[in-house]
Every structure is written in structure tokens, then in C-alpha cells.
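Hi U.,

Before I forget, here's the chain from the pilot set. I'm dumping it here mostly so it's searchable later in email.
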Amino acid sequence: MNDHGTLIADDTIRFERLLPGPIERVWAFLTESDKRAQWLAAGPMASDAGGDVALHFRNAELAEGDDPAPEKYRDYENTGSMFGRITRCEPPHRLSYTWTDLPGEIEEEDSEVSFELTAEGDKVRLVLIHRRLQAHELLSVAGGWHTHLGILEDRLAGRAPRPFWRTHTQLEAEYAEKLGLD
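Structure:
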């Protein structure tokens, strides 16, 4: 399985991972704030379609011994929030929500993140699709999701998580070449 995300449309990127299970454990890492904070971002998340979600990022705290954020992300080194509305919630298999950085201004045209989980023996296949991305977001989003999913895999496997900013910087350069983006 190629770890790199794949553009499946001009505004859509898809990632796939085979993670340590069981499926209920992976679902908890997607939906429970304390577990989600270990790989992505803490914050409240409704459990039904139509409910709100808020993600508060602390990327510099995801692993020990990380590099500082690159200059273009310095203002977001250990801050930043995303907001959205749950568009689909079917535990423990499907979760989707909109994604915007403007609280209270959630619109149907905002980008949308979807997670699909499928049990495969003692493993769980996770498919993440982020839709309706603006062209200027693709590079950062590709490197970001790839890095966050790697940290999720580390956490589920009981390993020390890889450093976020060091990994993201390397992956962003790879995606720039792979996707022909700057």
C-alpha cells in the first residue's frame, strides 16, 4: 500500500491505511477528544449528523523532540482551530464533517473530510477522503493528513509518535514533487 495520498479529483485527496484494530478502538481515536488529541486535535464533536465539531490543534505537542514549525507555518506552530458540521455518523464505520477555519460560518461548500473504517481480521482499513479543497490548500493538506495519519498509526501500534513538523516538512516537499504543486 502506498502511504502517499492520491488526488482522485482536482479538489480531492484520498489516503488509505491499514491500522491495528479493533475497529471500535480506531473509531474512538476519531471521535473522542482525548484520544484524537494524541494524533490530530482535541475538541468537542457531536455524535449525530447536523452536530458541530471543533478541532484545536497542538501539533508541536504531538511528539517529543520535534523541530520548530517552518517559517510559513510559524503562526500555527502550536495553535489553530478548524470547525465543521457532522454530515455523516455511522459508528463505527463512517464519519464525515465539513472543515473550515471560521467558527460559526459553516457553509455547504466548505471542504469535507470523510473517514471510512472496515475491519480486516485484527486490522482496520481506514480510508480518508478530503473533498472540495482549494488549489492553494492541497500541498499543506496532503502533507498534514499524511503526517497525522502516521502519528495515528504510531499511537495505535504503541510506538513513540513521529515528530509532526519534521515529518510534515519532508512530506510537503515530496507532495510538491509528486503532485506538481508549489
